[in-house]
Specification:
The protein is an alpha+beta fold. It has 4 helices and 11 strands, in the order αββααββββαβββββ. The longest helix has 52 residues.
Length: 306
């Protein structure tokens, strides 16, 4: 049997340079694999969001098919500030002047807050809860389903389990007057904070965001930088507990623009980063990719008339 020479032992190991090369290759492969995994995960999250957008679009279309109007059109607008509501029977309340939806139906306690709450582009209360129309409105019968006429509110049009209570900045409403139809130019992270808006919040979960896009640690505060937040119940609910009901991570709510004025009725999802890129002035049915800070790169837009 041949014996190995002592000098031959060097052929049984690796040099330092060889080890460094192998480690570099392994690191590069790991980085590539991780990037691929992240890309697949983000793609799956986007697909989930698109499916939920279609579900919301279906609810909006069924609302219009049943009533003849989108939310925010015809009788489905909030009556004007200062409207006097008078109960004329146990089931009917008339309005002076004649309005659409009773202002007392809107959630905020202060009458001054109701217009902004109702006009929020994430407010989908009309798809989740039957509206209370002023009894003397000529289309008041549309607040309930008529089997004979096959017309009227026939919801809920969204699963109540998908409802979350959302906060956002008032600038997300119309850029000039907060109770007009939002046009999609505002930001959900700017302006006075609007509270407890019933929204469609389903899909992949993300952290809440503040104006600086930092993680919000104090969503329960009604003032300060944490504009965008959501919870399982409203703050006025019996047993409400900020530590239990304020959700640090939840799906982005879906916004709806253009229903009231027919300006490209569309659903907007502002993606993983929580940054809404704003309205695409050339084609509102597409994300705004011209934002200087790439806010709209992961936005998705679904036009209802497409």
């Amino acid at each position: 049997m041949a014996l190995s020479k002592a000098g031959d032992l060097r052929d049984c190991g690796f040099t330092l340079i060889e080890l460094l090369v192998v480690c570099g290759i392994l690191a590069a492969l790991s980085y590539t694999a991780w990037g691929t995994y992240i890309g697949i995960q983000e793609g799956a999250e986007d697909e989930i969001a698109r499916a939920e957008m279609q579900r919301l679009a279906d609810g909006l279309r069924r609302f219009k098919a049943d009533t003849g109007y989108y939310p925010g059109q015809g009788p489905f607008v909030l009556s004007s500030p200062g409207t006097l509501e008078t109960a004329v029977s146990a089931t009917r309340i008339d309005c002076t002047p004649v309005g659409g939806i009773l202002r007392t139906w809107a959630a905020p306690n202060l009458d001054a807050d109701r217009d902004a709450w109702f006009a929020s582009p994430v407010n989908l209360a009309l798809l989740l809860e039957a509206p209370a129309l002023c009894g003397n409105h000529p289309l008041a019968h549309l607040n309930r389903w008529s089997p004979d006429a096959r017309r009227g509110w026939h919801g809920p049009y969204l699963d109540s389990k998908s409802r979350l209570w959302v906060d956002h900045g008032a600038d997300f409403n119309a850029s000039t007057v907060v109770f007009t139809a939002p046009d999609g130019t505002g930001s959900p992270l700017a302006g006075a904070k609007l509270l407890d808006i019933p929204a469609f919040g389903v899909g992949p979960r993300y952290r809440a965001a503040g104006p600086s896009w930092s993680t919000c640690s104090s969503q329960a505060a009604i003032t300060g930088n944490c504009m965008l937040g959501w919870r399982e119940v409203t703050r006025e609910s019996i047993g409400y507990d900020a530590s239990r009901h304020e959700l640090p991570a939840r799906a982005r709510p879906f916004a709806v623009f253009g229903l009231a004025n027919g300006d490209h009725p569309r659903i907007v999802y502002w993606g993983r980063d929580g940054r809404y890129g704003g309205r695409n002035t050339a084609d509102p049915c597409r994300p705004n990719l011209s934002h200087p800070e790439d806010y709209g790169d992961d936005d998705q837009v679904l036009c209802l008339n497409d």
